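Researcher: Here's the sequence for the chain we discussed earlier.
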Amino acid sequence: MKKRMLSVLLVMFIVSAGVNAQSRNPFSLALTPGAELPLGPKNTDGTVIFSYGGSATLAGEYTMPFATFLFAKGLLGYSMISTLAQTTFSLATIGAGAGVKFSPFSKVELKFSGTGGYSLAIYQGKVAGSPFFGGEGRVLYALSPVFSLGIGGSYTHARPFYNGVGVFLGVSLNLGAGQLQSKMDVNDIKLDPVFPVFYQYYDDNPLGSVVIKNTENGPVKDVRVSFFVQQYMDKPKLCGTRGEMKKNEEIEIPLFALFKNSILEITEGTKVNSEILVEYNFLDTVITGDTSETIQMYHRNAMTWDDDRKAASFVTAKDPEILRFSKNITGDIRDIGSTAVNNKFREAMGLFESLKQYGIDYVIDPTSAYAALSQDELSLDYLQFPIQTMSYKAGDCDDLSILYAALLESIGIETAFITIPGHIYMAFSIGMSPAQAKAEFLRPDDLIFTDTEAWVPVEITMVKDGFLKAWQTGIKQWKENEGAGTAVFYPVHEAWGTYPPVGMTDPNARIENLDNEKVIQTFTADLLKFVEREISGKVKELQDMIRESGNDPQMINKLGVLYARTGLYNRAQAEFEKAAGRGFAASRFNLGNIYFLREEYEKALDYYNGALREFPDNTKVLVAVARSHYELEDYDSARSVYEKIEEINPEKAAEFTYLLSTQ
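Model: Thanks. This is the structure I predict for it:
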């Protein structure tokens, strides 16, 4: 009999090991084999009529959702007990109860419960029924989120048939074991609306946040939180990790996204579904969960003015149509007009005039005006991409500033946005330090100086009025507002560090070809106006000095140098000829320079030789003579003059060693 009962207990334990564990959803199942130690009933002499026995209990538990430390249970039990008379007594029970549970340590759970119900006693072929009640205490050790090994003790009283205590081993099984549910609570989800133009921005800057809480029965490890929008992302973006989270610990995770550029195809705002994915390791088992949340996707032209630097994302300098337009214009004006003027300045002026000739117009959109929307940082504005402004041939101040900046950036001229109350315009860098610009520009007060660069402000909305008027208005607005502390300067390249430009192109959009001759005409006229305006004060000053000195040739020569320095070569030539006619030898050298710049090398050599007769050992004159011989392919004469230079000034000669070569 003893061997038979031990075999039954062993089989029951082995079976239960595959069937039981710690709950992952509200329902769990436990099968616990054990041993019974009878306490009664007793004989008249006070001895217990039973000796020992075995038992097995099948219990189902339901965790209360409103208080996870409480559970209800139902059970079926069966006990087989030997009597002192070498007979067998059986007791079957069915009942229900409730209990409490808590986890004092990681992986350890304590459960205490009480039950009551009905029992059937079976002895020598007779069956009798009776109510019963009992209690149980268990200690569970989690082997995994699915299975827990347990040990415990129980008490059963089925009067008048039996009362006793038991000890048992067992495991518990989650009824949802095939689909482990995450017990990581996802709360307080905050998702900002998404602006497609900033789709690269969200890779490093959060678009929202989420709070996660560990409600497992112990600490979890290797926590990973990801964010995913199926339509517009290739794969989930890992947003945050945590090596370990204690039980009931909460953490806030910022949410990031790496969107595809197809997001720029959104032309009307829409709402889409997003997923917050949480993965972690609990008891050597990887568990995942996901939570869905709706997110607002704005259209591709949407922006708010909470950060004025955002406009930089619309500066699409690499748009093929923008590149084609800008390079076509600058290629034609590169050698037109006064080449003595800073090249970046010339190109910027030429592109401004090209917009005027193209028919670009400044139009205020009453529903999307910067003056109104910039006062409310959260108001939604509609900004045009450069290709759109060129297609529409119209835009407001932000649209035109973005377009002009894109054209300039496409040819390597750095730009900046300037904001003043109710208005945005732009500036471009002339590629000079403040010291260089002050030395080259006769009116440096019309420039903006940063620590390292000089900038030209342009009121682009005055595209119909010409470049010089737009520049004059731009610097006026800057001075008025900079002094009041209300002007802000945003270099586009710096803004791109936070808000990079997008690759938005429209394959169906093409910019119309311009009549470049008209552009060249207006550009040349404006460039001449600029030069005359720049030097007008100095010209008057020199003319007064010439008149007061009785036409001193040295003063006349100075006026010619001023004209030559600004590229007005015809006017310079006239002044040099006057001075040379009055016997000023240096003017002959300057006339040689004028003809050399025009590539009229024979005339240049004639004037240089005239100057050389006056200054036979002047290194500068000797170099000019040698260069003229070289350009006329008279290499022997060039070498002969070079040797004289080398005798007089070896250091200067080292700068022109090419004069010794032959082509």
